[in-house]
């Protein structure tokens, strides 16, 4: 291989790399507003028209404009909740009459009222993390995990009182 061929090959690689980089940049610019994957916690959010601001699902149609142009509160998006919302912003509870925003699934709170957003097969939540105490059944607003900050607080959160006698904050 001569020196000239090496230069031609390097130039071809540079042109190819520039083409691939341009294609990726164009794809990012052309992605539709309203959807944005949040890979840090594997959840989705709402991408504002500025294509830079991503807001959590529960901040869409909450009567507070979080996007500069207010597109998170537009009538076409918020007119007939939950049907007017894109499916990725909604989690359907096991009771078909109830729904919650997608970012309320697996947040430790009983948002559906029957814990289907925390324990149901559709929720597919990970087990309790280190900041949580696992007990089932849980009383009040939690489902199968209680925040450790509530351990030994003098209030029964677990049916078997394990949050008061066994759990350490």
TrEMBL record:
The keyword Thylakoid does not apply. GO terms for cellular component: plasma membrane. It is found in: Membrane. Its main location: membrane. One of its GO terms (biological process) is vesicle-mediated transport. InterPro entries: LDL_receptor-like_sf (IPR036055), LDLR (IPR050685), LDLRAD1_C (IPR057430), LDrepeatLR_classA_rpt (IPR002172). Keywords: Disulfide bond, Membrane, Repeat, Signal, Transmembrane, Transmembrane helix. This is Low density lipoprotein receptor class A domain containing 1. It comes from Aquila chrysaetos chrysaetos.
């Amino acid at each position: 291989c001569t020196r000239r061929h090496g230069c031609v090959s390097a130039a071809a690689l540079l042109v190819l790399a520039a083409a691939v980089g341009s294609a990726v940049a164009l794809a990012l610019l052309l992605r539709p507003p309203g959807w944005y994957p949040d890979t840090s916690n594997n959840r989705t959010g709402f991408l504002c028209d500025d294509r830079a601001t991503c807001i959590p699902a529960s901040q869409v149609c909450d009567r507070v404009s979080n996007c500069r142009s207010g597109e998170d509160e537009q009538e076409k998006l918020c007119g007939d909740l939950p049907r007017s919302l894109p499916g990725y912003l909604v989690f359907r509870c096991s009771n078909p009459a109830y729904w919650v925003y997608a970012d309320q699934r697996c947040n430790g709170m009983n948002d559906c009222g029957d814990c289907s957003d925390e324990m149901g097969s559709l929720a597919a939540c990970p087990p309790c993390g280190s900041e949580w105490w696992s007990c089932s059944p849980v009383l009040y607003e939690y489902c199968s995990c209680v925040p450790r900050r509530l351990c030994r607080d003098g209030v029964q959160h677990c049916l078997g009182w394990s949050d008061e006698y066994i759990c350490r904050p």
